[in-house]
Amino acid sequence: MEDLGMKSMQVDNKFWFGKSVFLTGHTGFKGSWLSLWLNSMGARITGYAQAPETDPNLFDVLNLNNSFDVSHIADIRDFNSLSKAVIRSQPEIVIHMAAQPLVRYSYLNPVETYATNVMGTVHLLESLRMVDSVRATVVVTTDKCYENTERLSGYREDEPMGGHDPYSNSKGCAELVAAAYRQSYFSSDKYKQHNHAIATARAGNVIGGGDWSEDRLIPDAIRAFGVDKKLVIRNPLAVRPWQHVLEPLSGYLVLAQALYEGGAQYAGGWNFGPLDKDARSVKEVVELLISKWDGKAGWEQDSGENPHEAQSLRLDISKAREHLGWIPRWDLELAIEKIARWQEAYQKKQDMKAFSLSQIQAYNKL
Q1: Most CB atoms within 10 A, among 251, 269, 336, 343?
Q2: How many CA atoms within 13 Å lie on the side-chain side of 131?
Q3: What is the pLDDT of residues 76-122, one digit of tens each?
Q4: What's the chain look like in SS3?
């Protein structure tokens, strides 16, 4: 594998200009940030996702409706609808982020979780067999796809898939689906015949401005602090690899370009997590947010029973660093600062599309 090194660390605006991109999950938190970024670079985007699930939501706050060639509001579980959208789009690059993304929700709704995260991935990859235009596909999974042994060192891309809860396990299954499709239909040894390279991307616990999801730490904290209530924390000592949303998104973009330009040598799994020092406990993250919060804020531990969640989780990012030149740019302190400033701007009714673009530009200049 060629080492792209520092030349590919920065997202290449010129590469993305005019590229046809099929983006699933474009109405979600990460999808909205990525849609804004791609649109700012001049990419031609076809989005495919269900309608935003919260009110307010980032997709509407950023007024993204006019950022797409086509925005399909549809279900990834509907194979006929999805395959028709892919065929009409004839994309060059596919980024698959549509998912049921919540651990606790997956305990209550396991069938929906597996149908979305596993069969949704099957539906997309099967749809891609129907077109010859695609050069690069990035399937986004999660750090939780690994078989977690509660060790202190980071998990590497060649380690076993697993997952204790339905969400984590469904993402491990999605990884196996992507590997099977890659080996069966888009293999490296036949790359010159199909010219399509497929990779999977595993990010850490993503945080950022504009997340109104239920049962996520930062949104829950902002909701509680906004009404002068204490945040209730289930597991304050649990350690997670926290990172600003722009960190993994930059990784997906760099990886997609590497697949497009370098082909099958970049196929396979990739970790895009924070530096080791930013694998912190829930308690540390909340107290850091409190220190940046302009107003009354505090937390207390939940005394009730809760379903199992991993106590410790870290990612080894040496592969992305060595072969893609990708490294995190915003540490946890700066990420929390950026979230606080985003929330402050939103409360003051500033132009949040312009404000969010300014954060993307600041990130990409580093």
Answers
A1: 251
A2: 23
A3: 999 999 999 999 999 999 999 999 999 999 999 999 999 999 999 99
A4: CCCCHHHHCCCCHHHHCCCEEEEECCCCHHHHHHHHHHHHCCCEEEEEECCCCCCCCHHHHCCCHHHCCEEEECCCCCHHHHHHHHHHHCCCEEEECCCCCCHHHHHHCHHHHHHHHHHHHHHHHHHHCCCCCCCEEEEECCHHHECCCCCCCCECCCCCECCCCHHHHHHHHHHHHHHHHHHHHCCHHHHHHHCCEEEEEEECEEECCCCCCCCCHHHHHHHHHHCCCCEEECCCCCEEEEEECHHHHHHHHHHHHHHHHHHHHHCEEEEECCCHHHEEEHHHHHHHHHHHCCCCCCEEECCCCCCCCCCECCECCHHHHHHHCCCCCCCHHHHHHHHHHHHHHHHCCCCHHHHHHHHHHHHHHC
pTM over cut 0.70: yes
Cα distance between residue 227 and residue 298, in whole Å:
12
Burial status of residue 295 (CB atoms within 10 A of its CB: 0-12, 13-18, 19 or more): exposed
Candidates 104, 107, 350, 307; CA nearest to 217 is 104
Q: Which helix (H) or strand (E) holds 21?
A: strand 20-24
